[in-house]
Amino acid sequence: MITGIIAGIGLTLAAIGFIVFAQDKGWVLRWWQWLLLALAVPIFLLGVAALSTSIAEGAAAAGWAMFGIALLITLIMGFAALRPVRAKAS
Predict the structure, then answer these.
(1) What counts of helices (H) and strands (E) characterise the chain?
(2) Domain extents for the chain?
(3) pLDDT band at 17 (very low <50, low <70, confident <90, very high)
(4) DSSP secondary structure string, 11-79?
(5) How confident is the model at residue 20, as a pLDDT?
(6) CB contact burial 57-77 (16+ within 10 A = b; e otherwise)
(7) pLDDT category of residue 89 using cuts at 50, 70 and 90
(8) Which band of pLDDT confidence, cut at 50, 70 and 90, is reported for residue 90?
(9) Of 29, 33, 13, 20, whose CA–CA distance to 77 is shortest?
(10) What is the structure's pLDDT at 85?
(11) Cα gap 48→35, rounded to integer Å
């Protein structure tokens, strides 16, 4: 239970930090960009959970594979969400 509280606090601080960072950069994110970024976080956390559970169960190779797939999906979603913003800035 305490790990869930700590994770929630960490995610809240990360979200607030990203919002402040985006405002400082002058980025204007549309609703679909926020949605992609908001969906990328749980997918990444699911990969981390799968990795830690699989390592504890003795199936580390499967855990790393699931984590790699989750990381790839997260990166694609992140680049898709932020590419239009970075293109405008240059």
Answers:
(1) 3, 0
(2) 2-89
(3) very high
(4) HHHHHHHHHHHHHHHT----HHHHHHHHHHHHHHHHHHHHHHHHHHHT-HHHHHHHHHHHHHHHHHHHH
(5) 93
(6) eeeeeebeebbeebeebbeeb
(7) low
(8) low
(9) 33
(10) 81
(11) 21
Those residues with Cβ within 8 angstroms of residue 54's Cβ, 6 or more apart along the chain or in another chain: 60, 62, 63, 64, 66
Burial 11-23 (b: 16+ CB within 10 A, else e): eeeeeeeeeeebe
User: In the chain, what's the furthest Cα-to-Cα distance?
Assistant: 47
Residue type, 52: S
Q: Which amino acid appears at position 37 of this protein?
A: L
